[in-house]
Amino acid sequence: MLDVYHQRVESELSRRLAERKGIDANLHQAMHYSLMNGGKRLRPTLVYLANDLLGGQPEQADSAACALECVHSYSLVHDDLPAMDNDELRRGKPTCHIQFNEATAILTGDALLTWAFELLSQPSETLAPATQLQMVHDLARCSGDLGMVDGQAFDLGSEGKRLSLEQLNNMHAAKTGELIRASLRLGALASGNATDADLAALDRYAQKIGLAFQIQDDILDIESTTEQLGKPQGSDEERDKATYPALVGLAQSKRWLHQLHQEAIEALEPFGSRNRSLIALADFIIARNH
Amino acid sequence: MLDVYHQRVESELSRRLAERKGIDANLHQAMHYSLMNGGKRLRPTLVYLANDLLGGQPEQADSAACALECVHSYSLVHDDLPAMDNDELRRGKPTCHIQFNEATAILTGDALLTWAFELLSQPSETLAPATQLQMVHDLARCSGDLGMVDGQAFDLGSEGKRLSLEQLNNMHAAKTGELIRASLRLGALASGNATDADLAALDRYAQKIGLAFQIQDDILDIESTTEQLGKPQGSDEERDKATYPALVGLAQSKRWLHQLHQEAIEALEPFGSRNRSLIALADFIIARNH
Predict the structure, then answer these.
(1) How far does B269 lie from chain A, in Å, by closest CA?
(2) Is the pTM of this model over 0.90?
(3) How far is B17 from chain A (nearest CA, A)?
(4) Which site in A283, B201, B241, B278 is 20 to 30 Å from B184, CA atoms measured?
(5) Interface residue B84 vs chain A (CB under 8 A)
């Protein structure tokens, strides 16, 4: 199931990128390089799963799936810049500003972010304009200064400071949690059948798997290999980055990860037996090794 | 008339920024610093004028006016970055990355761009969802890799190269023209009364004043003072930048400016006597000294 959606968004992104060949060649290459980079496609998969959960057809969710990957991808390109995290490798390949240059990486991020909103607002035969508009609004709120960008700004301002557990939770909730939440909300909305109660249940699930994802990231940085990670193992510790293992220890981090896993599954109870794929997704987040 | 709209968008931006005080303080300050910077507010003014031209009330156009200024402002913040134009002054004040730092400037641009789409997609009592959706779509197309960002990418790739007149025109049409076009289109759409013919006439007008604006910019860089410009006079020549005076001479640039002025006014003929404010705006672009 997860593989099907992975392939689906790969092919959708690839097809839609090919349609934009008329633009500046360097910009097009950099957008392609940054988007088609072997990523996990977690956010598009969440879009499709939430859409399916509420009875939507995959084609209703294609634009949202692509839009979410565009926003995720833009955030990585900008995050990797020298003035930000100064990362030279991403999934084992040179980051955008290394492969191209810094100016191109800035513009590529800008283009991908803007494209996300173009994708969501395209005339649609299956979605009502009011639904599309709510998808635009949810994505903007979750990814901007009330969401993801706020988390990145806080992260930036907390360099070298010792964070409390609450601050670390809040930072990750904004920095990665909000986009995971947006993925599930947009997928649900794309079905045309989402109630407020559905969205609230998905918000709770999002909160749990978002935090679990981050804790697992921190654990992997300690326990995985550079090859599996596609980036240098142990880099968090080297940078003195605030992580869950650093704050509460590795054993407690693992206990908490499993508790969040359970709570994520509980959040899906309102959906009855239709919830299997989202449970599998929660399992995947815990079990992944990269 | 222009003053009224200038004050209106200042107050709208200021009020809406104040509502976002809960975010990261540094990010909020940088957003405020970049938006409330004494700019000309040309794009919001165009939004209001096009809205008024088609019988809309100003309050229908407030969100679009703010969104256009957010996109313009983000593009300046990113354009000024060391990896891009490396500008330290903007309207006589330190640019965002000088006043704060590079990472903050990157995030501030990202936040302003995202906020633009949040503003346009807010639930509205006066605009139909389908109209709001078209506004989102038009802004995304005009400001992304099919519009403004494409122009910036071309500009980047043409450094040190000799451009033809056609290339220079195309670059400016994308880099500044598309956002001016978006301003007029969104203002017209916000009225709820825009026909395809209206939008086409405004597109023609946009094309003329967009190019006129750029030619006047190039002329001012030669003929104005550093004080009036708020940035070093003569910087285009010093950087060996492709400009109209450099390509066709100062006298020909001025002749062309006046021809575009005439053509802009002709493009407004379908609107009959309602077109006075947009004529005044074209006059302002030609007469401005900063």
Answers:
(1) 31
(2) yes
(3) 11
(4) B241
(5) yes
Q: Which domains does chain B have, with CATH numbers?
A: 2-287 (1.10.600.10)
Identify which of B204, B216, B205, B207 has the alpha carbon closest to the alpha carbon of residue B256: B216
Whole-angstrom Cα distance, residue B134 to residue A120? 11
CA–CA separation, A83 and A90 (whole Å): 16
DSSP-derived letter for residue A275 is: G
Which residue in B37, B117, B29 sits closest to B71, CA to CA? B117
Q: What is the longest distance spanned by two Cα atoms in chain A?
A: 53
Q: For every one of its 290 residues, what pLDDT tens digit does chain A have, with 9 covering 90 and above?
A: 678 999 999 999 999 999 999 999 999 999 999 999 888 899 999 999 999 999 999 999 999 999 999 999 999 999 999 999 999 999 889 999 999 999 999 999 999 999 999 999 999 999 999 999 999 999 999 999 999 999 999 999 998 888 999 999 999 999 999 999 999 999 999 999 999 999 999 999 999 999 999 999 999 988 877 777 666 777 777 677 789 999 999 999 999 999 999 999 999 999 998 888 999 999 988 887 76
3-state secondary structure string, B230-279?
A: CCCCCHHHHCCCCCHHHHHCHHHHHHHHHHHHHHHHHHCHHHHHHHHHHH
First-to-last alpha carbon distance for chain A, in angstroms, is 19
A154 vs B24, B140, B143: nearest CB: B24
Q: Are the beta carbons of A121 and B137 separated by less than 8 Å?
A: yes
Length of chain B: 290
